[in-house]
Amino acid sequence: MTDLEKEMVKSDGNRRSCPSDYEYDTLMQLLGVSVSKHLLDEHFTVIWANDFYYQTIGWEKEEYEEVFQNRPDLYYAQDPEEWEKLMETVIAALNNQENGYKLAAPMRKKERRSRMGSIFYGFCRRVCKWVSSCLYCHDQY
Predict the structure, then answer these.
(1) How far apart are CA 35 and CA 133, in angstroms?
(2) Residue 70 carries which DSSP code?
(3) Which among 71, 70, 58 is positioned nearest to 114, based on CA atoms?
(4) Among the listed residues 29, 6, 28, the one whose alpha carbon sits nearest the alpha carbon of residue 18
């Protein structure tokens, strides 16, 4: 029995669902979607992102953090109209007490090419801070 199979079996021998990290990694690998979590502050600060987030924008994690300081407002500085559209959508969804929103938007890659995709956001409140989880799916591959 492999280590993974051992991990999937309870001590009483009954099968259980795969560990959440394994499920998540497998699902993200199969779907190839970018997932990130943001503070709902004036910068929409990235507080966590998966590897596909950085692959989608074409930046290494450490380089992105150094250049943009985890601030999407700085990332969108060359696309101010897209930033405004994103912020207007976020504010409208929050003001309407919606659970999230969907927005068709480009994601600029490091080499300046953009890919069109759909951004799906969900809101939740965590320890006195509003956060948003983002799922970005490419419309074209």
Answers:
(1) 7
(2) T
(3) 58
(4) 6
Question: With 0-12 CB in 10 A as exposed, 13-18 as middle and 19+ as buried, what is 122?
Answer: middle
* pLDDT tens per residue, range 55-105: 888 899 999 999 999 999 999 998 899 899 988 988 888 888 888 888 887
97 in helix, strand or coil?
coil
CA dihedral 50, 53, 55, 60 (to 10 degrees): -80
- Tokens 């897209």, residue located: 82
CA distance 52 to 76: 18
Question: Shortest CA distance to 107 belongs to which of 69, 131, 134?
Answer: 134
What does DSSP assign to residue 77?
A: G
φ/ψ region of 95 (left if φ > 0, alpha if ψ in -120 to 50, else beta) reads alpha
